[in-house]
Recover the amino acids of this structure.
C-alpha cells in the first residue's frame, strides 16, 4: 500500500533553515508528481510546492518563492523541501502528497501524516 | 487569500442532505476540473472527489460532486456523524499557473 512518511520538522528560530524529507513506498515513486502542502494552526490548506516525476517541472507558491527549494531522489524514493529564511508565518504542519497532473487538473491522491514546523524565537 | 470561496460552515441532522458550494472564476473552475478533500479532525486530508464528480475507490456514493460554470458543489446525502469534518475544494488556476485550495467548510452534524 502507498505510504508517505514525513520527517525533519521541529522548532527553528526566525531566519533559520530546516530540511523536510518524505520517504515513499508502495508505488513506483519515479512515475508521480509529488507535492508539499501545508496547514497553519487552525487555518486552511496551502499548496507550497510541487515537482514533476523527473524533476524538470517545479512550482512554488508566491509565499515561499526564493526561500524554499523542492527536490527529489528517485533512486531513494524520497522527496525533500529545503526551507531557508524561515518566518513565523511558515509555522504549519507540512504534508507530503503523491499527486497527479494532467491538462486542466492537479490533485493529490495520497497524503502523509504531516510534520510540524514551528518558527519562533 | 484564496481564489476559491467556500462558506465557512454547514450543518445538518443525521440522514439529511448537505451541500457545500465552491465559487471561483473563469481562470480556475470555469476552465479546469474541481477536486474535493475531506479532513477529519486531527488527520491528514483525504481525496474525496476528483475531476468534478469522480469518487476514488472506497469513497461512499453518499458523496457527489458537480460543476456548473465557475462554481462547484459537493453534496453529502444521508449525512452521518462520521462526516463531521472540514471540506476543501481545489482547482488549477490558469492565471496563477498553479493549484489552489478553497477556503474550507466545516460540516457539523447536529
Amino acid at each position: 500500500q502507498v505510504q508517505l512518511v514525513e520527517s525533519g520538522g521541529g522548532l527553528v528560530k526566525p531566519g533559520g533553515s530546516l530540511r523536510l524529507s518524505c520517504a515513499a513506498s508502495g508505488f513506483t515513486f519515479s512515475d508521480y508528481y509529488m507535492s508539499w502542502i501545508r496547514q497553519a494552526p487552525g487555518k486552511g490548506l496551502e499548496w507550497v510546492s510541487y515537482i514533476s516525476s523527473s524533476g524538470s517541472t517545479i512550482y512554488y507558491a508566491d509565499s515561499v518563492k526564493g526561500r524554499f527549494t523542492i527536490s527529489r531522489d528517485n533512486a531513494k524514493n524520497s522527496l525533500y523541501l529545503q526551507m531557508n529564511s524561515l518566518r513565523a508565518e511558515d509555522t504549519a504542519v507540512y504534508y507530503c502528497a503523491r499527486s497527479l497532473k494532467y491538462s486542466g487538473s492537479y490533485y493529490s491522491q495520497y497524503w502523509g501524516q504531516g510534520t510540524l514546523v514551528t518558527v519562533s524565537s | 487569500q484564496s481564489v476559491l470561496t467556500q462558506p465557512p460552515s454547514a450543518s445538518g441532522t443525521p440522514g439529511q442532505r448537505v451541500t457545500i458550494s465552491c465559487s471561483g472564476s473563469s481562470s480556475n473552475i470555469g476552465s479546469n476540473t474541481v477536486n474535493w478533500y475531506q479532513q477529519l479532525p486531527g488527520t491528514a486530508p483525504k481525496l474525496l472527489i476528483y475531476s468534478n464528480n469522480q469518487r476514488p475507490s472506497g469513497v461512499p456514493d453518499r458523496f457527489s460532486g458537480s460543476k456548473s460554470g465557475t462554481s462547484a458543489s459537493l453534496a453529502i446525502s444521508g449525512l452521518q456523524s462520521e462526516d463531521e469534518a472540514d471540506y476543501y475544494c481545489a482547482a488549477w488556476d490558469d492565471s496563477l499557473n498553479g493549484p489552489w485550495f478553497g477556503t474550507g467548510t466545516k460540516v457539523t452534524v447536529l
Notes: Chain A has a mean pLDDT of 97. DSSP finds no helices and eleven strands in chain A. The interface with chain B takes residues 37, 44-47, 50, 59, 61, 95, 104-114 of chain A (CB under 8 Å). The longest strand of chain A covers residues 92-102.
